Amino acid sequence: MTELLQQIRDQIEVRRSSGLYPPGLEQQLEREFAEIMSSTNRRYFASKDLQAQLGHLEDAFVRLSGQISPRSRIPGFSLVHRLVGKLTKRQVLGLTAQIRDVESIVVVVLKMLGEFAESQEEADSRVVRELSQHVLDRVAVVDHLAILTTELEARVRNLESRLGQ
Amino acid sequence: MGTKRVHQVLVGAARNDAITAMVLEIQTELTESFTSNIYCHHPVDASFPEFVQQLTEIGIGSPDDLLIYHLSFGIPELTEMLLSRPEKLVIAYHNVTPAKYYAELLPEFAEALAYGKSEASLLKKRVSLAIADSEFNAEELESFGYEDVHVVAGGANPQRLLDVGVDVNFMSDLEQHFPNGFILFVSQVLPHKRVDHALEILQLLRTVHRLDIGLVIAGPIRQPAYEFAVQTLRDKLQDSHLLMTNAVTDEQLATLYRTCLCYIGTSEHEGLSVPPLEAMANGAPVVVLGAGAVPETVKTGGIVLPIDTGVIEFAEVVAEVITNSDLRSHLRRAGVARLNEGFSENSAQKFVELVSGITV
Predict the structure, then answer these.
(1) Using a CB-CB distance cutoff of 8 angstroms, which residues of chain A are in contact with residue B236?
(2) Does A15 sit within 8 Å of B311, measured CB to CB?
(3) Per-residue pLDDT reduced to its tens digit, B133-157
(4) Are residues A29 and B311, on separate chains, in Cβ contact within 8 Å?
(5) Does the distance separating the beta carbons of A8 and B317 come in below 8 Å?
């Protein structure tokens, strides 16, 4: 098994020098995931909190009926509340309907804003991904050229020493 | 069932959790000789048998009774409670995950883990018997000042799936999903298990080695925030060959072990690690990172890579296993030989025998 592992390690070296594994690939992968982890807390919990708050808003919206209990802790005031309730019923119900209209739009707008923020983030990360891929490709080319140059230099030195002899 | 009471205490019982599985196996043995329940600090799922109860249900104890505390996390309230009880105390140490893996993602959870490391020291003066489920864990207990630590992986039963049949529907789903096969990692989806590394290994196998295979991560998703991070990485790698099953049935697990091309383990911290042993028992070639107790658990039953092995080398070794049938056969035989060498005994029975020694 030790022999097999050594063979595999030798093979990796060959693949590294052929440019199949760009230098620093593992470190770069490690860094990228560390970045994801550092932003996950904020992104994951922010998204969860937004969903929870939207849920609360929708619940509150369902409960919006315009009906208020006439009960009072002060003796006799229940009657007063009932009377005031009857007198203002038309206005209160009208106002409730208007609030419901506005609230339903608010819920939709907030959901859209949430989705927009999410898609914007996705678009941003796509751009960053494409850019990093482009940069990585260029770096890989430069690395490969550097390896080739080193090899050429070695060959030239070899040739020079042979000619010198 | 005897009249003496020997109860087990753990932080929480969960399905598809290795410690809970071990505790349940021990329970079966305990009830042969003692009156015994399992008490959990966290609320208990109704699907567990009635002898698994919440800790608030524990009655008044006596110095003749015994509590076996399975330490794997840290909760100050639980420490205080254990320190104040009259029963003799046995500590079964399963190790505590290093807090660093959670510091950024879940800071409060990380604090509890950091506390867990100190809990063993705090309980030391009350402990009559210390048991660790691996040499690695025993060494850690000794570093906290414990002496005479016994090593028994009590309740670990890697052969438990041998009598379990395969799930044919699941098998055909897997075949459709991964026509050229898949590699398997059985693990809870947690940061220190490094599922991200497993995903990167898959990418290298698919791109560098041109192996059109998939990866199955079989295990409950305990931290949705970490799963979110893994999914983000997956999106970044534009991968569609990863299947995260969440919790699986025993039939599904047996199917996965028996049909995978290779079992891999990328975890960076393991106090025991039973899944590679289960994989060996079910004929899967095993390639794992030698973290914590893994080298002593797997021994020569699989390929144990040095802890600092990067994903490139890991993927190269897995590619070799997948493409080299002689190596696969060798690993299958080595796995079975490893199990015959050290896991044929009834570990739960051995654990209970040790515990019985201090009940007299």
Answers:
(1) 32, 36, 125, 129
(2) no
(3) 999 999 999 999 999 999 999 999 8
(4) yes
(5) yes
3-state DSSP call for residue B8? strand
Residue among B100, B102, B104, B238 with most chain A CBs within 10 A, to mutate: B104
- Helix residue spans in chain A (DSSP H): 2-17, 25-63, 77-164
Contact A165/B at CB under 8 A:
no
Rounded to 10°, the helix B347-356/B18-33 angle is: 60
DSSP sequence for B286-304: EEEE--TTHHHHHGGGSEE
**B82-115 per-position pLDDT tens digit:** 999 999 999 999 999 999 998 888 888 899 999 9
Contact partners, residue B201, CB within 8 Å, separation at least 6: B183, B215, B264, B266, B311, B314, B315, B318
Q: Which of chain B's residues have a Cβ under 8 Å away from the Cβ of A15? A: 208
Sequence-separated (6 or more) residues with CB below 8 Å from residue B168: none
Which residues lie below 8 Å from residue B33, measured CB to CB, with a gap of 6+?
Answer: B1, B2, B4, B352, B356
Residue of B nearest to A10 (CA): B313
Chain pair A-B, CB pairs under 8 angstroms = 59
B166-199 burial code (b ≥16 CB/10 A, e <16): bbeebbeebeeebeebbbbbbbbbbbbbbbbbbb
